[in-house]
Fold:
Amino acid sequence: MPDVHDHATGAPSEGRGLFRSAELLVVLAAAVAAGALLLALLAVAAERTDLLLLDFREWRPVASGVGEPSRSPLEGYFNGLQAGPPARRPFRLTLQLESAAGGLGFLAAERELPAAAGELYCFRVLASTSAPVTAGGLGIAVYVNDAVAWSTPLAGPVRGYAVAVSGIRPRRGKVKIRLELRSSNWQPSPPVPAPAVRFEYASFRRCEDRGPEGQAPVRAAAPGAR
Amino acid sequence: MIQGAVYGLVFLAATAYAVRTARRQGPLAAGLMVRAVLFLVTGIGVFLPALVGLLNLSNRTLARLVNPEVAVTLGDLLLTTLAVAGLVLGARHWPVRLGEPAFVALALVSAIGLKLAYVFVVHVELVSDFASMWGLTSLLAEHGLGATRSSLTFFYHWAHFERVLPYLLPLRLAFGPQPSSYTVANVVLGAASSLLVYRMTRPWFGAGAARVALVVSLAAVETVLASAIPTHDVPGAFYTLLSLTLVLAAWRLHSQGRYRAALLVSAGFGLAVLVLDVQRTTGTVMLLSSALLGLAMAFVERRAPGPPAPGRNRQLVATLSLVLIPWVVFGAADQALRRAALRVPSALLARAGGLGLAAGTDSWGDGGYDYCFENYTIPYNALAVNWSSLTLAKLATDTHHHPGARVASYLRKATVLFDLGSQTYFYLNAAELRGLGPVSGPRADRVLAISRWFSALFLGALVVAFRRLWTMPEVPLPSLLPLLYLAVLTAILLFLAEVQPRYLYSIWYLGAIYVGALLGGPARGEAES
Structure:
């Protein structure tokens, strides 16, 4: 055992080395084990509960506009927008139109998510832009099962939106989500790159929230101010 | 790809080194558990990121040597090396007959004199946080707390408000609006921090080590440059050392059986930690580190601290004073400050809680401050969502999907956090040496390269010091507290938060303790007093 009197006063002691103290090791090992356990619990919770965020790696690009780009260059452009190789960008999706003059008319990413028939689902995502988006300029929209569920409110300039869509009913065991970016009469001169829009913190899960009665299943949070 | 391979090699080398070290005689020979725990706590917290930072620094500095575009010369680096070596050797071999107090006085007076000369000669245009904090300080001084507080609407407004209260505002009120009201205080507080380092190091590692620790912390290039800025780094380091001093004093009082005094000092420690938290947001890290060590001392040791005291439950008192009292005092005082609207209001804190974590927890982000600020802080700040739950979701999902990516992120972020010396630009931004023209272009490159080279030497010594610490036959238990604090802080930053090197400003003092232990240990045949 270390001589605690000497340790406390700092004077050299004749005891054994600090790290031979089995008790100290027990405490430190317990702290490390507790940390590891916490991480393991988090991982299990992520897998089994609603905490799991949507993985954007499986999402595919869709585009239209001048030139109707073929699939392969589109995927190249789409992949180039992302933060890194697909394996390293699971939870964030970036979309950006090419410069408005002669670029893509719209760019979207979509995916069909498996869902249980008869259940209601909610979809949430944060959208933030690299520069303020003014009204009538760049449009951001969320489509659910090919219907517009949310679109950029006519207010600006803003740089962030918290989007929440509830009361989603699956169609043939699936729900198709599409995140879209569209330029509308946006022709700056000289041409400048359009703002990039980042979608993240996306979640898709069962929930009992039915959304507004008799309306399209849309409910969007108020946009944030800059 | 190449960078990944280099980091992989570094990791393998560090592991192999740890295993090799473990086979030696000394404390590490005590068993597998010892090696595992030691490697995890100090290795992940300090040793490995310091090693990665060192490689990164050396790489940049050496690149400058072969790049003719950069003004730094081999002579600059040689001169820096010689100056550092001269200081260390002078401190280590200080003649005993001249006396220890004489050395301390000489070192402090010289350092204070040089730094005062520096801060009175340079003119610094304030940028970024420094400008904001000094501007807010002036507002508070002129219009009062109440009038100004009503305009604080964002979380970061409040963060600046908190930071100026324990340092800049009192200085501004006492000495007026001129820069000397904080530059002189910075110089004095830096010297006081070094003095605390000396006082801590001496009983643990000997007089030579304490002298080296003193001069290293006084001479660190960034501690000189930071003196000219209205910063929270300088007082933050001082409050860190003050907190450590208080908790160590509580331990000492325990060992002497002075339980009542120990309880009082522990309460003082809780308050000092609160000031540290207000100033630099690292109070809870300090509490966590001291609790880890305090638990070991008070709860598990079969021989509880202190001499036998009939009728008194020493372990209970030890647990109370070393672990619980500081938390209770800290928590109560913290709540009182929030109710008095002197800290971020609880509601705003809850709303913004996790925002910082959300910004910095990416496995794939580089953790750089500019990146986080541009990409997250501005657009995120206005979104009214529950950041705590989102952060938890992101952390959990990230961990679940990419444990490997998180390790890679840890190494990548270590190069940012341990890019010590890089803050020179920050501190020197728009600085103008009177009569010498602005410090920009080649001259700034030169100062930066010298500062980085000093940092590389410092980190190199720190890395080797850990090896020495691990193989020392006897390490005083309290001497691990600064290391634990540094390890917990670094690990939290690397795994969870944004990684500005400025968060590690206190390393110039805490690291100096171990650098001193390495370089100032008793020479062969020399009898240390």
